[in-house]
Amino acid sequence: MGLLEGKVAIVTGAGGGLGEAYAKLFAKEGAAVVVNDLGSTLDGSGTSAAAEKVVADIIAAGGRAVANGDDVSTPAGGENILRTAIDAFGQVDILICNAGILRDRTFSKITEDDWDLVVKVHLKGTYCCTLPVWRWLRDNGRPGVIIMTSSTSGLFGNFGQANYGAAKAGIYGLIRVLSIEGRKYGIRVMGVAPNAITRMWADIPGLRDGDPDPILSPGNVAPGVLFMASELAADHSGKVLAVSGEKITEVKMLTTEGFHPKGHYTAQDVAAHATSVFFPADLQ
């Protein structure tokens, strides 16, 4: 019996890369899967039948799946993705918000369109897909799992990805808030910061012409996401795991011992207590 036997999972951006790996593993573990993908290019333009191909592969392997081509970044798209799950399988138990695009530029070169579209697909798209599923789980008294995709670009920063990093940092905040609000409904919310070579890595120097390291394949991220979606992680919510075939770690915010002025203080006082205010590495 699979880890997701009897469950219904929605995976957005599942026409290739990480989403495809998640969808196929989830189906192998017993879940019926809604494979969502607009089929766009990396920058968000165009459409294709990517979702249908993944569905055909899942069915050929003996699994259950249906395709959905709605735009994750609109409320209507999010509602339609949920409706696809209910119409096909009668329920939803798991949502994986994975869809994304890139428009990398250094900050001074980012256009308003570059900024708006990346934030819309990643951050608003996560909202648009999560809200209808959240309400359905709440209204039907069903526990569920929602896994959102953050990134080290948002959690730690990365050159040339101000738009992407800002969206991914926003998703971290959403994970934290919804994990608190979800307690009363039995809804767990977790995050994944994946490290895998996908088409989003295509233009990174050193990878463009070389053979990708198989340890960084999307298939080596999927088991970590399966863990989060399954009952094996029933005691965990509000946590973000950085996942790859190399290592799996939890990423979290920490605070230092700090300076406690207990009232009036000066900027010079803060400087004098820098060893308590900052982490040691920040003083080097």
What can you tell me about this protein's structure?
There is one protein chain. The protein is of the alpha/beta class. It has two domains: 246 residues, NAD(P)-binding Rossmann-like Domain (Rossmann fold, 3-Layer(aba) Sandwich); 29 residues, no CATH class. The protein has nine helices and eight strands. The chain has an eight-stranded mixed β-sheet, with helices on both faces. Helix 3 runs parallel beside helix 4 and helix 4 packs parallel to helix 6. The longest helix is centred in the middle third of the chain and has 28 residues. It is globular, with a radius of gyration of 20 Å.
Instruction: Look at the structure and give the CATH class of the largest domain.
Output: Alpha Beta
Oligomer: single chain
Number of strands: 8
Low-pLDDT parts are none
How many DSSP helices? 9
Biggest sheet architecture: 8 strands, mixed
* Amino- and carboxy-terminal Cα gap: 53 Å
- Helix residue percentage: 25-40%
What's the average pLDDT? 91
Q: Output the structural class.
A: alpha/beta
Overall shape:
globular
CATH superfamily of the largest domain: NAD(P)-binding Rossmann-like Domain
Order of helical and strand elements = EHEHEHEHEHHEHEEHH
> Mind telling me the C-alpha Rg?
20 Å
Fold-level CATH name of the largest domain? Rossmann fold
Query: Which strands sit side by side, in order, in the main sheet?
Result: 3-2-1-4-5-6-7-8
Q: How many domains in all? A: 2
Strand content: 5-15%
Named at the architecture level, the CATH assignment of the largest domain is 3-Layer(aba) Sandwich
InterPro entries: KR_dom, NAD(P)-bd_dom_sf, Peroxisomal_Beta-Oxidation, Sc_DH/Rdtase_CS, SDR_fam
Family: Belongs to the short-chain dehydrogenases/reductases (SDR) family.
Domain Ketoreductase: 7-204
Protein name: SDR family NAD(P)-dependent oxidoreductase
